Amino acid sequence: MSASGATYVAIITDGNGRWAKQRGLAVEEGHRAGADAVKARLRDAADLGIREFTVYSFSTENWARPPEEVAALMGMFSERLLAETPELHAEGVRMRFIGRREGVEPELLEQMRWAEQETGANERITLYVAFNYGGRAEIVDAARTFTGGTEEEFRAHLYSPEMHDPDLIIRTSGEQRLSNYLLWQSAYSELHFTDVLWPDFSRADLEYALAEYDARRRRFGGR
Q1: What is the pTM of this model?
Q2: Which residue in 103, 141, 188, 201 has the fewest CB atoms around it within 10 Å?
Q3: What is the C-alpha radius of gyration for the chain, rounded to an integer number of angstroms?
Q4: How many CB atoms lie within 10 A of CB 11?
Q5: Do residues 99 and 181 lie in contact, with contact meaning Cβ atoms separated by under 8 Å?
Q6: Which stretches does DSSP call E strand in the chain?
Q7: Chain centre distance of CA 80
Q8: Catalytic residue check, 195
């Protein structure tokens, strides 16, 4: 498939728990399968000419999940970060993390800073990981330091001002809502919903979403 007109793509990677339940597995196994899918689809996105690929890793609301699930998620996130950053670096992936830092273990924060520094000069594709992230929290945090001006001046106070607004937001698992994801940036994003659970979301599913995007006409409020 040739490159799509969608250069900036964000995904709500939903359905890991249901995927595990359908197979009689622990929810942690669903999250591991979901993490494998992130890495595979990131590579596909780079092949397809996508320049920025944003994934919803852990929301501010996810702290309300059972403590054992949260602990397993944090451990897996750290494990993957340490093991896969050198690999992604070699493939030209630039990594950035968006979200609140409060409440995250200092050791994990240091690993995130290391990954950003290690991959900071790469230009093939940027992977934005929304971790301890909430769209409303981002707007509130930006407003605390904003003293007035234009929308672009407000953008400078967001977690990652250089991140472009997504052309396309994909949500897996059949749910049809944004769930507090990129609320500022998604004002004119096209939306694609699929019943496919995230661990099963394939390259063909990604290509289908991009083709559907290409068939649309974006007006940005005009005619």
Answers
A1: 0.93
A2: 103
A3: 17
A4: 27
A5: no
A6: 8-12, 52-59, 93-98, 125-133, 168-171, 190-193
A7: 15
A8: no
- Hey, what are 56's tokens? 């919803």
Token output for 171: 């949500």
Q: Could you confirm whether 141 is annotated as catalytic?
A: no
Among residues 14, 44, 167, 205, the one annotated as catalytic is 14
Rounded to the nearest angstrom, the gap between the alpha carbon of residue 172 and the centroid of all alpha carbons in its chain is 12
Q: CB neighbours (10 Å) of residue 36?
A: 12
Return the SS3 of 169. strand
Q: Which member of 16, 44, 62, 205 is catalytic?
A: 62
Q: For the purposes of burial, counting CB atoms within 10 Å of the CB of 127, is it exposed (0-12), middle (13-18) or buried (19 or more)? A: buried
Contact predicate 136/179, CB 8 Å: no
